């Protein structure tokens, strides 16, 4: 007994006081609640309007360099689990370097904060395996945030590229309408005849409700509607081509120029591009049979106004400057007049194409 008692006395206790466990849980719970609140505050801050200070009020020497900000933002994303305040503060410092870039960085930082907020709220709430899914979502959001553009021009190009894809799809949809209409006319289909979509009349008890879902019957174009669509088709192609040429002839050409010199013009382009995309989609929707002339006229007018607004920004000396003939002359060889003519001819003037095609369009 005595030896056993001595042996028992030498053993360390294997239980943890309940009070200590409770305190640890309380601390963890409080920390997660604070993290959730910090994320909510960061999101609210990132949703505030972007402020672009005047150059006269904030000297460039007092503003963080864009390259430094981009590097800091990347580094702070690795600390997202320990602090959501620092990435938020860093994101708001991008404002003087361009509205498009600032909005992009704010959106990415806000997405990360929102993901962390959901992750923290899940840990505070009921004990489930959802926290694993939320943790993976945070990792994915961080990786997306790391792909933030390195400058305002890059941010505008990213937006323009995405809109260009949607515009191409809309133009192809109009081409498909015309092709289908021609096949229908050659096949002897009468104008306004309905085509079955695989649902019998007995199945379409909902009537118009099915049509709203795109599951009802569709009407072929009449001869007049087909001709109307064929007349609008060149306008759609022009708008699509004009938008497409802005990327290589304007945005790519600005890569060697100081970005801050034309940030105001650049920041006007994304909203104008978005308006052009939406107006083109409205034209496509209005071209489907049965066409309503008033709605179609309004849609075409909106599209013309949208591309005109793009032209007024693009066809300026700021975004499409005249070719530097002095530089071209400096690159000439001593071979005489023929070399001079060849060098000047190779100097591309994007303004020439934009202004020429615009004059033809507005005739």
Structure, explained:
The structure is a single chain. By secondary structure, this protein is mainly alpha-helical. The protein folds into three domains: 18-149, A middle domain of Talin 1 (Up-down Bundle); 155-194 and 221-321, I/LWEQ domain (Up-down Bundle); 325-363, no CATH class. It is built from 14 helices and two strands. The protein has helices at 2-10, 18-46, 66-77, 85-92, 99-124, 130-145, 152-186, 208-212, 223-251, 263-287, 293-314, 325-330, 337-346, 350-362, and strands at residues 194-195, 218-219. Strands 1-2 form a two-stranded antiparallel ribbon. Helix 3 packs antiparallel against helix 4 (85-92), helix 5 (99-124) runs antiparallel to helix 6 (130-145) and helix 7 (152-186) packs parallel to helix 10. The longest helix has 35 residues, at 152-186. The radius of gyration is 31 Å and the shape is flat.
Concise overview:
With 363 residues, the chain is mostly helical.
Order of helices and strands: HHHHHHHEHEHHHHHH
Report on the biggest sheet.
2 strands, antiparallel
Shape: flat
Radius of gyration based on Cα positions: 31 Å
Q: What is the CATH level 1 assignment of the largest domain? A: Mainly Alpha
Coarse structural class? mainly alpha
In CATH, the topology of the largest domain is named I/LWEQ domain
Quote the average pLDDT: 75
Residue runs with pLDDT of under 50 for 5 or more positions: 1-16, 18-22, 190-207, 332-345
Tally of separate domains: 3
Termini separation: 113 Å
Number of strands: 2
- The total count of helices amounts to 14
Helix content: 55-70%
Going by CATH, the homologous superfamily of the largest domain would be: I/LWEQ domain
Strand content: under 5%
CATH architecture of the largest domain: Up-down Bundle
């Amino acid at each position: 007994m005595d030896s056993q008692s001595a042996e028992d006395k030498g053993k360390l206790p294997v239980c943890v006081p309940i009070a200590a466990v409770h305190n640890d849980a309380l601390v963890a719970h409080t920390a997660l609640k604070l993290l959730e609140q910090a994320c909510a505050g960061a999101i609210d801050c990132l949703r505030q309007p972007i402020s672009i200070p005047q150059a006269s009020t904030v000297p460039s020497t007092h503003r963080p360099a864009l390259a430094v900000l981009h590097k800091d933002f990347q580094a702070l994303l690795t600390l997202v689990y320990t602090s959501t305040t620092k990435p938020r503060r860093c994101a708001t410092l991008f404002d003087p370097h361009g509205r498009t870039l600032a909005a992009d960085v704010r959106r990415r930082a806000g997405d990360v904060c929102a993901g962390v907020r959901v992750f923290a709220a899940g840990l505070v709430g009921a004990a489930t395996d959802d926290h694993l899914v939320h943790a993976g979502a945070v990792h994915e959001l961080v990786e997306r945030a790391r792909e933030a553009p390195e400058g305002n021009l890059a941010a505008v190009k990213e937006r323009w590229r995405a809109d260009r894809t949607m515009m191409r799809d809309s133009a192809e949809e109009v081409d498909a309408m015309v092709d289908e209409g021609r096949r229908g006319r050659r096949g002897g289909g009468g104008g306004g005849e309905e085509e079955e979509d695989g649902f019998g009349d007995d199945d379409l008890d909902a009537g118009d409700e099915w049509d709203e879902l795109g599951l009802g019957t569709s009407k072929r174009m009449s001869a007049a509607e087909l001709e109307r669509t064929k007349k609008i088709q060149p306008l759609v192609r022009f708008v699509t081509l004009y938008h497409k040429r802005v990327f290589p002839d304007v945005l790519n050409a600005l890569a060697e120029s100081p970005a801050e010199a034309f940030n105001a013009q650049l920041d006007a382009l994304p909203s104008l591009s978005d308006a052009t995309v939406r107006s083109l989609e409205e034209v496509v929707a209005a071209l489907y049979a049965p066409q309503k002339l008033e709605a179609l006229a309004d849609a075409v007018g909106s599209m013309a106004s949208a591309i005109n607004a793009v032209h007024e920004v693009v066809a300026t000396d700021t975004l499409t400057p005249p070719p530097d003939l002095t530089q071209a002359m400096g690159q000439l060889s001593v071979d005489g007049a023929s070399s001079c003519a060849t060098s000047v001819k190779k100097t591309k003037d994007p303004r020439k194409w934009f202004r020429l095609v615009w004059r033809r369009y507005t005739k």
